[in-house]
Amino acid sequence: MRDFPGIAAGASLGDALKNAPLDTLENRILLGHALQLSRIQLITQSERLLTDDEAVRLTALYRRRLQGEPIAYIVGEREFFGLAMAVTPDVLIPRPDTELLVELALERLPQQGKALDMGTGSGAIAVAIAHTRPDADMTALDVSEGALKVAASNAQRHGAKVRFLRSDWYSALTGAVREFDLIVSNPPYIVAGDAHLAQGDLRFEPIGALTDHADGLSALRTIIDGAAGYLKNGGWLLMEHGYDQAEAVRELLARGGFTDVQSWNDLAGIARVSGGKIAI
Fold it and tell me: pLDDT at residue 1 above 50?
């Protein structure tokens, strides 16, 4: 952690923003969070002086960030698909890249359709789909009780109708044979031992949601191998994966009997999602 003496009581909000140790955006986020002020309020109240308690609280937040803790965990939320999603260390922090998966799902989900989100984590994908398409029948699974609590709170916060089940992949789907029009998933796909797991925000996120502790494809294989038993004829399976896994995932889909197999690029031009239709 870089040397940081702290924020002084009596400093104005404007000075606190200018002299804080992070970039302007992160400074603004932490200051707004500590004082419960909007961006506009920070501007209009720039001459306001920090109290002792506010200076102590703000200094503590900066020190957490300087130690590497993700901003999303510090403030307790991250925006995803235009919705503020609560996050805790029980769940991955939603990334903008994953919005591609939601967009593709919405394009393929029929009216009154039934969709399944596997390994839902914060519920970001399921909640975004259900919020955008209130006609949909949305089910979301996760093996983590902590994650399911976060996901349920996000669904309630946004009035999204989602049924949450604790499940090790398909294990809890009794009686759900071939009932879904769509399955989506952002499973753990980082290869065991990848150096990125010890860097940046990933150091603080749940390891089991990041890596399969194997070749990075085992969770994807499990999802593909079981999907035919739960998808309706012509139903789509869409999965996020690593930057270099698109070809391998397409091969797994083709071997699994999927048609129209393809990959889609994220905003950076990286093949981020692959999927296909099932013919039974």
Answer: no
